[in-house]
Specification:
4 strands, single chain, mainly alpha, 5 helices, two-stranded parallel sheet, Arc Repressor Mutant, subunit A, DNA-binding, about 100 residues, two-stranded antiparallel ribbon, globular
Length: about 100
DNA sequence: GAGGTGACCCAAG
DNA sequence: TCTTGGGCCACCT
């Protein structure tokens, strides 16, 4: 069988691509899927290679999207009808309770 | 080969 | 409910 890209980067990208529209996963869940606790490493990989994957479907356990891309992610969430929760301060966050994708 | 950095996580106040 | 501090792993230079 052909050796699928078992690089950490490719593993991360594969998991992110496996997230269906309208669903999201936390960095910790992605790292856990890889058998590692490297939630931060996932973020690093996303920062460099996330351009080729739906990075907006990967958010923090708090429900907030990428620290410097929340505005950009909001447009994608609205386009995919992703469940969102709006705080009194006008700050939005993903409804992990309903949108969290568990493999 | 070694060090610094980061689209983070968890626990406690 | 929100904020703070420390720890973890992998990638880049």
């Amino acid at each position: 069988m052909p050796a699928l890209q078992d690089d950490f980067v490719s593993r991360v990208l594969a998991v992110v691509e496996s997230i269906p529209p309208g669903r999201v996963m936390t960095y910790g869940d992605v790292a856990a899927s890889l058998g590692s606790r490297a939630a931060r490493a996932v973020g690093q990989v996303m920062a460099y290679y996330g351009s080729d994957v739906p990075w907006w479907r990967v958010i923090r356990s708090s429900g907030h999207p990428a620290q410097d891309h929340e505005s950009r992610a909001l447009e994608y969430f609205r386009a995919e009808s992703t469940p969102l929760l709006w705080s009194s301060s006008g700050v939005f966050r993903v409804d992990l309770r309903a949108a969290r994708h568990t493999p």
